[in-house]
Amino acid sequence: MRRMFALLLSLLLTVPLLTACGSQTELQDGYYTAQVSEFSHGWKEFVTILVKGGSIISVEYNAENASGFIKSWDNAYMRNMLHSNGTYPNAYTRYYAGQLLEGQGEGGIDAITGASSSHKSFQLLAQAVLEQARKGDSSIAVVDAAH
């Protein structure tokens, strides 16, 4: 009985140590943002995540123009892109953000036909923002996502 108790106690003491060793890859609580370095076709894409309790609880993916106007709010752009590409910013940004949230940064992000350029940018931005969250660095990560 003592041997069983000693084994159980030893396991209970070891688990926190193993968890602490793995904390280098855990996400630190806070807001984290990554943005592309240059405007592309008048827009600069960004990803912002909120991490709480070590998990991503919110993801925003979008783009803004030089005046700060958000791409997914641009109805004329939406109509033109939907007609020519079959998708539009408000649809693909939510789709990509949802995949990051659901997979917690562990899974791949499926591309949407008509938004492959944004898919590439999103993957780079997601990788950068996750790295910021692992380090607990709330400064804005700037990513070169030349198309």
Describe this structure in a few short sentences.
By secondary structure, this protein is of the alpha+beta class. The protein has 4 helices and 4 strands; from the N terminus they run αβββαααβ.
Order of helices and strands: HEEEHHHE
Instruction: Name the helicity range.
Output: 40-55%
**Structural class by helix and strand composition:** alpha+beta
Mean pLDDT: 81
Q: How would you describe this structure to a colleague?
A:
With 147 residues, the protein is an alpha+beta fold. 45% of the residues lie in helices and 20% in strands. It has 4 helices and 4 strands. The protein has a 4-stranded mixed sheet with strand order 3-2-1-4. A hairpin with a 7-residue loop joins strand 1 and strand 2. Helix 3 runs parallel beside helix 4. The radius of gyration is 20 Å and the shape is globular. The relative contact order is 0.19. About 12% of the residues have low confidence.
Give the arrangement of secondary structure elements.
Blueprint: H1 2-21, E1 30-36, E2 44-52, E3 55-64, H2 75-85, H3 89-103, H4 116-135, E4 141-143
Parallel strand pairs: 1-4
Antiparallel strand pairs: 1-2, 2-3
Helix pairs in contact: 3-4
Features:
147 residues, alpha+beta
